[in-house]
């Protein structure tokens, strides 16, 4: 059994959660931590607590921020945890309250339940329901999302984004209040030398994947992202004020999605999903979430079906708006969604190039902030990490050719 951090705050949280779930005399019987490369800003523990008297058990997930001051000086640990805590203590309750006022009986089901939080620095902690124990599964890091997964994800983001549009239309001051409390982590990241330098290195890596005799057209269009240009584009995308802005999941690669499946003799169909890890939640165009997950996790076959998936998204979005008593065509016309794809899908393209390198890195080669590097070494270390360069090149070229074909590059 892994050892939980020695923390009076964590001990009290576990005691409170246990008692609220009918476990009066609890003991931790299991504690398993995350793999290397998961949970970049903290540790994740799968914990089982048991009642010493009745043997009743409760399974929870604990997300605990890194205590190490060297790490906290190097990375925005506190801000990230504050952002996720803010989602569970302010954003999600505001959506749930609004749904109740609109007489929507169905619970919001796109996020896990949060049982307790602590915001004391440097012991920011969240205690969440353990979705794995109720049948949800992690999607394999290197696997490619197929049609059924892509459809379900588009539907889920349609629900999430629908609440923002409806709340802003009905209660604009309430939406403004919760939106102003969201921390734009990406704006802070792009202003850091480490991340901006990393983006420049990623852009060089992308350019090295081109096959000149086949990719001349794309190479020419991609020049606008060379050097520091990619940094400027990224900054513009994450700081631009947008009339149709919503509260975004923000960190949309498949590691931050859990799926439940229906199994039959010949198939395995994803029927439910949860969006996890809200540390990079931000406010922006819905297309930021959609393009990020699609380009980071899927393939050319799915890219070519983009228009159909946008209709899947819009149908889910519209259904959510109608349940909340709002007019989807008035609040976010489908034509505007398509216009946004032309403008904001560059965000998904850039994030895919960043994340694909991480996704295609073997677990043993993944980097953790606990590896002991200082901030001045991190750029070089990230640049030299081993990954599947052939698969990276293939997938990046598919994204860029698709972006060129839809005239969004």
Automatic annotation (TrEMBL):
InterPro entries per UniProt: CHK_kinase-like, EcKL, Kinase-like_dom_sf
Domain of life per record: Eukaryota
Domain CHK kinase-like: 126-323
Protein name: CHK kinase-like domain-containing protein
């Amino acid at each position: 059994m892994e050892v939980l951090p020695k923390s009076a705050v964590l001990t009290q949280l576990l005691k409170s959660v246990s008692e609220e779930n009918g476990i009066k005399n609890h003991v931790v019987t299991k504690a398993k931590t995350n793999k290397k490369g998961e949970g970049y800003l903290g540790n994740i523990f799968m914990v089982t607590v048991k009642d010493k008297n009745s043997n009743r058990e409760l399974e929870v997930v604990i997300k605990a921020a890194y205590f190490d001051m060297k790490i906290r000086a190097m990375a925005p640990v506190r801000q990230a945890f504050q952002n996720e805590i803010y989602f569970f203590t302010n954003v999600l309750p505001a959506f749930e309250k609004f749904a109740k006022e609109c007489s929507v009986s169905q619970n919001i089901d796109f996020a896990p339940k949060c049982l307790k939080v602590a915001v004391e620095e440097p012991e920011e902690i969240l205690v969440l329901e353990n979705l794995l124990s109720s049948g949800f599964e992690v999607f394999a890091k290197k696997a490619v999302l197929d049609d059924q997964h892509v459809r379900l994800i588009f539907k889920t983001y349609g629900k999430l984004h629908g609440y923002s549009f409806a709340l802003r239309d009905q209660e604009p001051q309430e939406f403004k209040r919760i939106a102003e409390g969201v921390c734009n982590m990406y704006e802070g990241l792009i202003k850091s030398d480490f991340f901006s330098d990393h983006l420049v290195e990623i852009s060089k890596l992308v350019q090295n994947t081109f096959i000149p005799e086949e990719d001349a057209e794309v190479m020419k269009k991609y020049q606008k992202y060379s050097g520091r240009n990619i940094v400027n584009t990224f900054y513009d995308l994450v700081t631009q004020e947008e009339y149709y802005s919503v509260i975004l999941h923000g960190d949309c690669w498949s590691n931050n999605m859990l799926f439940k499946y229906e199994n039959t003799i010949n198939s395995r169909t994803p029927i439910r999903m949860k969006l996890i890890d809200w540390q990079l939640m931000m406010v922006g165009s819905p297309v930021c979430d959609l393009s990020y997950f699609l380009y980071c996790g899927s393939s050319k076959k799915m890219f070519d079906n983009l228009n159909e998936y946008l209709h899947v998204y819009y149908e889910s979005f519209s259904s959510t708006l109608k349940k909340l008593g709002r007019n989807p065509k008035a609040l976010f016309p489908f034509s505007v969604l398509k216009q946004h794809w032309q403008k904001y899908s560059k965000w998904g393209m850039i994030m895919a190039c960043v994340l694909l390198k991480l996704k295609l890195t073997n677990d043993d080669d993944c980097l953790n902030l606990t590896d002991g590097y200082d901030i001045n070494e991190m750029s070089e270390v990230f640049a030299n990490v081993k990954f599947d360069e052939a698969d990276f090149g293939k997938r990046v070229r598919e994204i860029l050719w698709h972006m060129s074909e839809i005239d969004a590059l």
